[in-house]
Predict the structure.
Amino acid sequence: MSGSSRPRVWQAPIFLGVIAACGLTSALLSNGVGDYLAWIALAIPVAVVLWYAPPRRKRKHGSLAGRERNQAMRDAEPIEGLVEGSVEHPQGLGR
Amino acid sequence: MLSASALRKWSFVHQWTSLICTLFLLMLCITGLPLIFYHEIDHALGYAVDPPERPGLAATANLDEIVEAARARKPGHAVQFVSRDPDEPHAWFVSLGETADAPTPSAFYMFDARTGEFLHEYPLEQGFMYVLFRLHYDLFTGLPGTLFLGVMGLLLVASLVSGTVLYGPFMRKLRFGSVRYERSRRIQWLDLHNLLGIATLVWLFTVGLTGVINTLALPIYGHWQATELADMTARYKDAPPLRQPGSAHRAVATARQALPDSDLSFLAFPGNEFSTPHHYVAFMYGSTPLTSRLLTPVLIDARTGELVDRRALPWYVTALLISQPLHFGDYGGLPLKILWALLDLIAIVVLASGVYLWIKKRNIPIEARLGLLQNEGIA
């Protein structure tokens, strides 16, 4: 099981790591082309973060509906946090 | 797959290395953000100026006259360094100290390299950027503060390594980049922490490690001076003290002649921590992008202006010199600085979410956290 899942987990991180390392080095070794490569290479991790981090819009609900749903969830969270806290703390005291 | 006990150990390492350094790392990230644009901000605030346009004039002013003019502005103080900036080819910079070997400068002047005219006095130890710099550099406490921040940087490196080890098991059932917004806020921030951390890992690691190396600058130069420099100048040990150093202009000419493909970065005047009581030391940079970051010291007899010796810097000084651009992000133009700032902002989110996750789940054992994850994967 781990044999098949490990490459998948590490594929993107290794790719991003190699790209960033190339970018960090290229501007050091060459001006002009090296700088352009560095800009592209280091923009990739930033772009990846901006692409994946925001809430995904659920296509089947339509984009607006998805956003509203997420907002509703965020609004509901303080209550969830309270519940979690009240469960966790007695455990912590017990240990 | 990690065993349960190995996982617990890595989790312990990640939690504690992060907790100890996070507060300082947050401070470093926040103060570091404007420091990326130090040069631009200094110019915008008028702390630094550009030399005036003088088409057709070459940088041929006599350095000795510039040095004299600088001395006249600060009587009784000693000239410590004259320096050049590859980005400001029309300027000479002169820094003075109360004594030849004073650890901090008492004045920093800019002169026109074409006419020898005085252009600007840099304000020292004042302004918002100076406060940010000192916080970032040594917490206003000198070498102990710098070394302390270096230890915090080492903890960051340990935290990045352990965090990377933990990324595997936590992401086993998830696609890359998954952020489970439909789950509790804690899970959302766990996913964001993992995503932002792993996407910027190599940059974080590079800036962290080069920051640690930079904190060792003073010990590194001290070691170079005590070993290599002392060795190069051993035969001057018993020479009578120099009353007045000879021509700096000639010293620079000698250095340029010795290394025709290089140009001067800075010239250390006799008696300061980068030279000896009997020598000028010219630090020359090369002409390729990489060698322009490296320095070759050229020793010049301060009395006669003749070449004494030149040697490439040892590996540990080279490592320090390479670490500087990789930490500052100042080696690829303004776009690279902007990317540095964006990556720094992401780092702030990683740090802050780490604290949030610790507050939220410090009482849940790691097996439970992972177990929860596995059930989700099956469901």
User: Anything to note?
Assistant: The beta strands of chain B are 78-85, 88-97, 107-112, 118-121, 263-268, 279-285, 295-301, 307-310. DSSP finds twelve helices and eight strands in chain B. The first strand of chain B starts at residue 78 and ends at 85.
